[in-house]
Amino acid sequence: MWRAGVNGCGVFGIKPPLWRKYQACCELHDAMYDLGGDGKDRFRADKRLLVDMVERSTGSWLMAWCFVYYLSVRMFGWLFFNYQGGASPAPSEGVENRQGGYQLVNSSTIKL
Q: What is the pTM (predicted TM-score) of this model?
């Protein structure tokens, strides 16, 4: 179901609660999904989304909401990730093994 484009938080035009608070996080996540790759790349994008959302949260209930959103992304995000090079959806594949951050350079390039 992957198709190019950054739309921020939500899917099929349905926005989750508090989406405006996390819109920049979701846009970076979408750009990383558009860039694509394999299951490890998807895991990195999802992990980055969680970290960015938690950094923008105050209070334990907001952090809990971020984790629920992250779990939803992990469960259903494979439908929207741009798998490349014969990579297949494997939500449990891989663990982050690199140090360092991601930076959105433009809508199609992620600088590692």
A: 0.74
| Location of structure tokens 């609660």 | 17
- 104 pairs with which residues across the strands? 110
Q: How do residues 36-59 score in pLDDT, each as one tens digit?
A: 999 999 999 999 999 999 999 998
Of 95, 100, 87, 98, nearest to 33 (Cα)? 87
Q: Which helix (H) or strand (E) holds 42?
A: helix 39-55
Is the separation of the CB atoms in 25 and 53 below 8 Å?
A: yes
Determine the angle formed by the axes of helices 60-76 and 39-55, rounding to 10 degrees.
160
State the DSSP string of 61-91: HHHHHHHHHHHHHHHHGGGTS-B-TT----T
Identify the helix (H) or strand (E) that includes residue 33. helix 23-35
Per DSSP, 14 falls in state: B
Round to whole Å and give the CA distance between 109 and 36. 11
